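Thread title: Can someone regenerate the structure for this chain?

I was given the following input by a collaborator and told the matching structure tokens would be attached. They weren't. Posting the sequence so someone can regenerate them.
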Amino acid sequence: MAVDVALARPVTQLPTGPWAYEIKVDGHRTVLWRTEDSVRLQSRTSRDVTALWTDLAVAAMRLPPGVILDGEAVVYLSNADGNTRCP
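Best answer:
Regenerated them for you:
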């Protein structure tokens, strides 16, 4: 099942209403499907990238079946001082 991912677009003014905003990080735009018995991750070009994000797929098995998430898959690393960073 392929879907078009939601892509950001430039605007001159932020929308009003009950919106949430996220910090921009460089990652991989991904749609995640939690089915009855598995998880599938798809890139913005409709390529199956589940094998590339195995840790994310395993963690997503805790979600209830039927959940679909559209977002940015990002790797964070912890430094010795406890701070995190994107590689």
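Strands lie at 28-34, 39-43, 68-73, 77-78, 84-85.
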